[in-house]
Design goal:
The complex is a heterodimer of chains A (313) and B (648).
Chain A lengths: L15 E4 L6 E4 L18 E7 L8 H4 L8 H10 L5 E5 L12 H14 L4 E4 L4 H14 L6 E5 L4 H11 L3 E5 L4 H13 L7 E4 L9 H17 L10 E3 L1 H4 L3 H4 L11 H19 L3 E4 L2 H14 L1
Parallel strand pairs in A: 3-4, 3-10, 4-5, 5-6, 6-7, 7-8, 9-10
Antiparallel strand pairs in A: 1-2
Helix pairs in contact in A: 2-3, 3-4, 4-5, 10-11
Chain B lengths: L1 E7 L4 E6 L5 H7 L18 E11 L7 H6 L1 E3 L3 E11 L1 H4 L6 E2 L5 H16 L8 E7 L11 H12 L4 E3 L2 H13 L3 E8 L3 E9 L7 E7 L3 E8 L5 E8 L9 H8 L4 H25 L6 E8 L1 H8 L4 H4 L15 H4 L8 E4 L9 H10 L8 E6 L2 E7 L4 E7 L19 E7 L6 E5 L9 E2 L1 H13 L16 E3 L5 E6 L10 E4 H24 L9 E5 L8 H6 L11 E3 L3 H11 L1 H13 E3 L8 H8 L11 H11 L1
Parallel strand pairs in B: 1-5, 8-10, 11-14, 14-15, 16-25, 18-27, 19-21, 25-26
Antiparallel strand pairs in B: 1-2, 3-4, 3-5, 6-13, 7-9, 9-10, 11-12, 12-13, 16-17, 17-18, 19-20, 22-23, 23-24
Helix pairs in contact in B: 4-16, 12-16, 12-17, 14-18, 16-17
Classes of the chains: A alpha/beta (313), B alpha/beta (648).
Chain lengths: 313, 648
């Protein structure tokens, strides 16, 4: 009996969101099928890969990554270098130095870095806050203001500070709003509802529904992303049709598999290999579960995931 | 030793000794000063605020007291330590939970109608309204030198002769009065007896010309509120009705905190005393006075309560209720007697306990199920008891399924900064003008009563109105500004329903984002429990034919608004019926009718108990329901219609 393929057709699709301006601008989302199911429906745009640098510059990088930035001295240099690696679609700048419980850098200091990085590259930009809700409520509106006209993705508003960040990024400065929730389909939808009720255009919202490193309760991530895509496509739920971006690197580089030295764990093998493995396996799983974009740190990971996407497109 | 002076808004004063470092809330408990502390002194609820008038306290600063309020002397009792002599004002709101025992006005037909209707309903099903208590008249020969039988044997012989019974028991306190009563009335007496097929128990003895009334006491012991009625056991007539806050509240607002408190040394006694000596006995005294009966004439009692309350009432360790595998000491028992528990009624009075069916579905529900009559109808009915634990029963004459969810005390005004029970001074209904954002409200009590706080039905109205007028977003956070919307220094929003000068309180009556959040969780727990239970039976919400709502939320509950906020499913309003305190009505029926009592045991054993925490999708349903009206708006088409109509 011949194989009779029955495509799974949906009458709904994920919003297409453009990030950046000019030739280098990218689009994410737009699909009307499950990830990599190009046999069900044509996939208009492929998933995108971003490389992440932090305001801490070279010092904050793990040794194995720092080697790739040899010769860079300023944040501008680092940004240019990052943009030059194979497979990079966009640049993500993580401002974790702003955390009041960490380096507690001032908003002015961080904005200066944001401007320096933005001037150095013409790639689409994603700027991530420090995750402290109060600090981000102060910092991210300034980021949105400083990068007016660049159509950047500002990450992230949370339920606690959505008014300040959503209004600044989405209304006042016409950037793209990243909406972050904690691995729960209902919480993700609720944040989208109140964000759009604020007046923010739902077509300019990208979700970060949360992630974990593989092996760290990761099943919840898969289930959440999978059900979000299911509801967005199957039930045409327009409050869940925002594309998903997943900051993988900030989860995977902190776990012991990526950080324990080879001296401590000789049986685990070289630390660099492990770091890349954790990042690549998490990112691949995120993409297969429904992420439209991932953010990674190691140039090798970026290259690998980018090739994976091209191969499966 | 230092002197702590608690003064109250009515001018009264309580003085108690304390040592340096003593916790003020603990001192208040020792001194029997009622200060509400639903979180049991963890500084998380902010309700135990008191005002320093003289002296100093060593008080930790918390989010609940603003700098300005701190300057004015406001402190949280639970984080305040004694450093010397001090004088403290306990505001009405801090003690409002204890609020004033309330005697019901029986001249209002609604109060009595609930009971007489319930009586008619069960009678229609063929249940006889008869119990085993009876008054019988006996005449004996007076003893002589030739007839030397002692008094007790003489009475027994007479009773055995009149009635076909093998044994007759005469308890001590009847024996004690027997010689006098017999001689005073020429050996012609009336006995209050329990007649059972082969044995008889003599509760009391009176002269034959005396009017004898057999009184029964039905009690609903809620986690937050205790209500009771006195009834005539012969015809079911209601003689008195009262309600009061459960004195155990100061040991925590929910059953878990109380169980923990009970496991401390002396804890079982403390909690039992709080409900029996402090709460129930004063209620009994007041009811007896108002009905003109003696407490000793109360010969039988019935109790409807959740499993934990039953245990704490009986002074039995309730700890196994909260620890796996959640097996309580009893579901039903007939070994409780008033004298042993220290209840101020006839000491031989037997206590009927409405049967529990699980650790978290108690006798209040089985009694309520009896009243809801869902067991006698072919239609699918949903019975919802909005208590501190929300309990549900769904089914019809063929099957019944029950489950419980933790709603918290919000429906009875607990966990809400200006919350109170549905008694005098409570705002029970409210509307808000969309343009001006000004409220108008109705208050329980005589005309002219000033508002003191919010009861459950008032909270539903306010949240609903704030939501549909766009003042709060579906998460319950304030998104409009105005004269009545305020933000504290931490950014927390609140809406002032009555400014201090309009209210009978020392502070504004307001509802805060934290209150709204607590209430949204409570309503989310109820709605998600309904959905989860129906889903497990493969039933759709539209298949519910009738909904019976019970609980102390207040008869003013606006079902439409309850649907708008997503507490109840969006089905036609005429399907909803408020049946009041069905636990009390049910225990009343169990007391009055032995057959109804048996029926309740039968219902309890026929109900399937579903443990929600074991259902994997419950948490998902719950998070989805913690939104106004719901994350899935397609479940609430009428709300969406209303919203778009209002938006125009």
């Amino acid at each position: 009996m011949p194989f009779n393929q029955k495509p799974q057709k949906f009458n709904a699709k994920i919003n297409t969101v453009k990030i950046g301006t000019g030739d280098k601008a990218i689009e994410i989302g737009g699909e009307s099928s499950f990830p990599f199911y190009s046999f069900d429906a044509p996939v208009p745009v492929t998933q995108k890969v971003g490389i992440e640098i932090t305001d801490g510059g070279l010092e904050a990088m793990p040794e194995c990554i720092r080697a790739y930035y040899d010769g860079a001295s300023s944040m501008g240099d680092i940004a240019r270098k990052a943009a030059s690696f194979e497979g990079v679609d966009f640049l993500a700048l993580l401002l974790d130095g702003g955390d009041p419980n960490g380096a507690n850098k001032s908003t002015e200091e961080l904005i200066a870095i944001v401007k320096e990085v933005a001037e150095a590259v013409d790639l689409p930009l994603v700027v991530e806050g420090c995750k402290n809700v109060e600090k981000d409520a102060e910092l991210l509106p300034k980021v949105a203001e400083a990068l007016q006209g660049r159509n950047v993705l500002v990450m992230s508003e949370k339920e606690e500070n959505y008014k300040a960040i959503g209004a600044a990024a989405g209304l006042a400065y016409d950037q793209i709003v990243g909406a972050e929730s904690a691995v729960d389909i209902n919480l993700a939808k609720q944040l989208n509802v109140i964000t759009t009720q604020l007046g923010v255009n739902g077509a300019k919202v990208v979700m970060n529904v949360g992630t974990a490193a593989v092996g760290y309760g990761y099943e919840y991530v898969v289930s959440t992303m999978d059900r979000i895509k299911g509801a967005a496509l199957g039930q045409n739920d327009n409050m869940l049709q925002m594309p998903i971006i997943t900051p993988v690197a900030s989860e995977t580089w902190g776990v012991k598999e990526a950080s324990a030295s080879e001296a401590d764990m000789p049986e685990w093998g070289p630390v660099e290999e492990r770091g890349i493995d954790m990042e690549v396996s998490t990112a691949a799983a995120d993409l297969a579960a429904g992420s439209d974009a991932v953010i990674l740190r190691h140039p090798k990971s970026v290259e690998t995931i980018s090739r994976l996407i091209q191969a499966l497109a | 030793m230092y002197k702590i002076t608690f003064s109250f808004e009515d001018g009264s004063v309580v003085i108690h000794d304390a040592n340096v470092g003593d916790n003020l809330l603990e001192i208040a408990r020792e001194a029997n000063v009622a200060i509400d502390a639903p979180c049991s002194g963890n500084a998380s609820c902010g309700k135990c605020r008191v005002k320093l008038i003289e002296g100093e306290l060593d008080s930790k600063r918390t989010l609940h007291i603003t700098d300005e309020e701190y300057e004015q002397g406001w402190r949280l009792a639970c984080v305040s330590k004694v450093t010397g002599d001090v004088k403290i004002l306990v505001p009405d709101i801090a003690s409002a939970y204890k609020s004033r025992m309330k005697m019901a006005d029986l001249s209002s037909p609604e109060e009595v109608a609930i009971f007489s209707n319930a009586m008619k309903d069960v009678e229609m099903t063929g249940i006889s309204l008869h119990n085993s208590l009876d008054v019988i008249e006996v005449e004996m020969e007076a003893p002589t030198l030739d007839d030397t039988m002692p008094d007790n044997e003489r009475l027994m012989r007479a009773l055995k002769k009149y009635f076909n019974t093998n044994t007759v028991r005469i308890p001590y306190h009847v024996l004690r009065k027997l010689p006098d009563v017999l001689r005073k009335h020429d050996f012609k007496v009336k006995c209050v007896v329990r007649t059972a097929p082969s044995n008889m128990f003599v509760y009391d003895v009176f002269g034959s010309e005396e009017e004898v009334l057999i009184v029964g006491l039905a009690v609903d012991i809620g986690t937050t509120t205790v209500s009771a009625v006195l009834l005539n056991m012969e015809n079911g007539e209601i003689l008195a009705k009262a309600s009061a806050g459960n004195g155990q509240i100061r040991f925590g607002a929910d059953v878990i905190n109380r169980i923990i408190e009970q496991t401390r040394p002396g804890g079982k006694k403390k909690l039992q005393d709080a409900v029996i000596k402090e709460t129930l006995n004063p209620m009994i005294a007041n009811m007896c006075q108002s009905a003109g009966v003696k407490a000793n004439q109360i010969y039988r009692m019935s109790v409807g309560a959740n499993t934990t309350m039953n245990h704490l009432f009986a002074g039995i360790n309730a700890d196994p209720v909260r620890t796996e595998p959640y097996i309580p000491a009893f579901f039903k028992t007939n070994s409780l007697f008033a004298g042993e528990l220290g209840i101020a009624i006839n000491p031989d009075a037997h206590i009927i306990i409405a049967p529990n069916i699980g650790s978290y579905v108690g006798g209040d529900i089985t009694a309520g199920t009896l009243v809801s009559m869902i067991w006698n109808r072919p239609e699918f009915s949903l019975f919802v008891d909005l208590g501190t634990n929300g309990e549900l029963v769904f089914g019809n004459s063929d099957f019944m399924m029950s489950c419980a969810c933790s709603a918290g005390p919000a429906f009875e005004g607990g966990d809400i900064s200006c919350g109170m029970r549905a008694t005098d001074g409570a705002i029970e209904a409210c509307t808000i003008d969309k343009e001006t954002m000004e409220p108008s409200y109705t208050i329980i009590g005589d005309p002219g009563t000033k508002p003191v706080g919010l009861c459950g039905s008032g909270i539903i109205d306010i949240i609903c109105e704030l939501f549909i007028t766009g003042i709060i977003n579906p998460k319950g956070k304030f998104v409009r500004e105005g004269r009545r919307v305020r933000h504290d220094e931490y950014g927390m929003g609140s809406y002032v329903i009555a400014f201090e000068e309009e209210a009978a309180s020392v502070k504004d009556i307001e509802i805060t984002e934290v209150d709204i959040d607590n209430f949204i969780r409570a309503k989310g727990a109820i709605f998600s429990a309904i959905r989860t239970m129906l889903n497990s039976l493969d039933f759709d919400i539209n298949m519910i034919d009738e909904v019976y709502v019970a609980g102390g939320i207040g008869s003013g509950i606006n079902m439409q608004n309850a649907v708008y906020i997503g507490m109840f499913p969006d089905i036609p309003l005429e399907k909803f019926h408020y049946i009041g305190n069905s636990s009390l009505t049910g225990t009343y029926l169990m007391l009055l009718s032995t057959e109804a009592e048996k029926k309740t045991y039968e219902l309890a054993s026929n109900m399937t108990y579903m443990e929600l925490s074991a259902v994997p999708t419950y948490m998902d349903e719950f998070v989805g329901a913690c939104f106004l009206p719901h994350t899935d708006t397609s479940l609430f088409p009428s709300v969406m219609e209303k919203m778009s109509a209002i938006g125009d």
